[in-house]
Here is the input.
Amino acid sequence: MPIPKVAEPPKRTNLAEDVYRGLLDDIVQGRLEPGAVASEQRIADDRGVSRSPVREAMDRLAIIGLVEVAPRRGTRIAPLDRQRYTDTVEALLPLLVESVHIVVPIADERQRRGLSTRLERRGVDASGLVRTDGFFDFVMRVLGNDRAYRLFEDLVPHVRRMWGLDPASVPGGLTADEAAALRDAIDGGHGGPAADVVRAWFDRQLESAR
Here is the structure.
């Protein structure tokens, strides 16, 4: 399966970043519905900004596949695409499995506590694993690789959006045994066993997505 394109880090003003984050959240949460026209002027007016930061934000959203630009039809919010969702899960699997494998042995005590706390506080449901400041987000921030984190940020909104707009697509979370095994691996600094739990969870998601 093809891996979705990754946006190269553009030079953006803080205002463009704010507009991007706002639009991204609106798309993921469904406030901007699939197929809706995305008028740069209307968005600029609604947010009280010029069209320049809106254009920058829309360009990045187009690169990661959340908006579509069609000749004579303008810009529209991308439809839900189950194949894109499956491709995204396939791309996230090696990224997050390897990141967990690397992070767990090198994390300091505070970081390991942060990982375990997110499993306890957020629960072991699927949404808790991928939400902002959830378990995987924290793993990627501990990893500290800007390019890998950008890849994660460009991929995971497709998963959050699918699960939010199509509740039937939300997979099961970690089992109680898996959650306990993952916490034990984190506490002991054992990257291999931690990665095995994550890989098994992703494998189940791919089975249900296909």
